[in-house]
Specification:
Helix content is 44%, strand content 28%. By secondary structure, the chain is of the alpha+beta class.
């Protein structure tokens, strides 16, 4: 008389599905990760405005040039200094940056990431 042994482990199909899932997750990380790394560089450039002691006395063009230089230095390509919305009123400065990044994942599948950053200085 033979005793049936219990089967253990994964089938070949299960392994293939698991590897496809891991591969898709890795592809998403490799496509979306750089977007957030660039956004970190953008927030650091805007933080430089906050740290600048004479930012309130600078003109709009000087603020844009300061940010543009930071973007060029850090190879930021998703946004430019022209996208800044600068509001000045007396001793109040508000620098706002709102932008979207669309990256193609594969075929007709894309990802959209929206960012909105604001730096405020002085009294409104």
């Amino acid at each position: 008389m033979r005793i049936m042994q219990q089967q253990q482990g994964m089938t070949l199909i299960s392994v293939i599905f698991l590897l496809c899932g891991i591969g898709f997750a890795a592809m998403l990380v490799l496509k979306i990760g750089p977007i957030y790394l660039d956004h970190n560089k953008v927030t650091m450039a805007l933080a430089a405005i906050e740290e600048n002691p004479d930012a309130l006395s600078k003109t709009d063009a000087e603020i844009r040039e300061l940010v543009r230089k930071r973007f060029d230095l850090n190879y930021v390509t998703d946004v430019s200094a022209r996208d800044l919305l600068i509001t000045k009123s007396g001793s109040y400065l508000k620098v706002e940056l709102k932008y979207d990044v669309v990256k193609n994942i594969m075929g007709n599948l894309s990802v959209l990431v929206e960012f909105h950053d604001v730096v405020e200085l002085g009294q409104s």
